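Below is one such record:
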Amino acid sequence: MAGTRRLRGPTWAAGLIVVLSMVASAAPQPALPEYWDVRAYITLNWNVLTRSLDTCKVLTDPKVPDRSVLYLPRELPEPTSVQALRERCPQVRIERLPADITRPGQANVQAIDPPGLLFLEHPYVVPGGMFNEMYGWDSYFIIRGLLRDGQRELAQGMVRNFFFELEHYGTVLNANRTYYLSRSQPPFLSSMVLAVHDSLGEAEKRAWLTEALPYVVRDYEMWIRGEHLAGDTGLSRYFDFGEGPVPELDTHARYYRDVVMYFLRHPEEGQPYLRKVDPENPDAASVGPVFTAQICERTAGMTSCTAMESFTLTEDYYKGDRSMRESGFDVSFHQGPFNASTHHYAPVDLNSLLYKTETDLERISTLLGRPAEARAWQERAARRRELVNRYLWDAQRGMYFDYDFVAGKRSTYEYATTFYPLWAGLASREQAQAVARNLSRFEQPGGVAMSRNESHTQWDYPYGWAPLQLITVEGLRRYGYDEHADRLSRKFLDMVAENFRRDENIREKFDVVKRTTEIDIKGGGYKENVVGFGWTNGVFLELLHGLQPEPARRVGTRMKSPRREQRTLGPP
């Protein structure tokens, strides 16, 4: 009718349909909020991505299909939610784990057959697509988004799920499936705890920290002992306690075949990871399949081939491959080809996160009135900073690099994890300035690329991921580089929004050079670009919030101004 205009939003996947109408009147209408359509999708999509025992779909595992098994801790009384699930989903098989689990690697994962979902007490948000479980480091960025969107109860329940994992499954798991019982993921638990703490009312804060403290300490202690130590450096490393190929690659079985083909084409890189075997009598110590290959040369009118040969990937390759998956950077080449040497490195990201855990524990102990414990955590953080500066800081190049403690040398591979020490408050003002000067080596039209090396794997150039955008932006902002932080935020937000308006969804990863979700992964990593997507949603909301003027930005956020940060967690 006359005087009426109708704005119709996009029709979104998973049944999300939003139709907005606005009736014009004589008075001017207010402008729609910036990125209103993306923000509306994210707010509605939390429900689509939330899983609980209220529905049978919580058990679905697209990575290992046709298996609906729920595992309970051995001694846990059956919760009422599980009893209700039995009635609601009669096809579901409910089992008990064969033993109590107090640490990663204790359970024989291969003996838990069929694999299945591990019970958690509270609802949780999944990343999306094939990732239909609660993931470790994904959840930090999801929780940040949930808190920004006012969904504190859901966010706090997810953190309590990690407490449950520590209590009953021995660690903060890669995700709550039985085949992940051999590894964790990057330690963001203290950051999750404090993010929730800062959203609580004063009356609730102390009780929350008292509840959380022993779990944060337990998570931290796993990383500073035994197999997670990086040789005699005093730093830590990623390490998966399992052996052989990872079972979650059932639906991506081509991956290891592609790795073998690459090593055969690049024998100088493949030599440590590839072993020739007799196909009739393969090495009894082999923990993976045998691959058969023949190399042929074509010339004009003629083809000549070598004899058929058989190979296996070495035990050390599989250990590195599994440890890479604990790091979350699966796959890149920054710790050897296909990150096959991940377990040989003391990485910048992990040790920055442990430094932050130590400073977070100092803060928690102080807030709980435990000054002696706070001093002990402060001393641990100071010691770690000293070791990071000794092994990981390259003053000449002005960046942080992983340290290969097996070879006894620092890497030269430029990787976006160089911004982690800024986010954690570990860098000095001079170090932060040097890293900021090198921002141009990573900055692209759509934000920060993971590296400068096009390895054709998903965690290298030209790809950028939401978590690294937030780490980089908040790290720069912490040291006063607001202009850089604002520019990077705007680049990523605009790219996400433009692709959303084309695809009508939000995806997992981006080609930040071409500013697109249309990707072409030829090397390592799954080829899909998954829709959802949990951490992209959370990071979008946080980057958008960070663009507000500082007084508004500081309301409801844990990050402090650079000057105050220097007096508390930052360097002297």
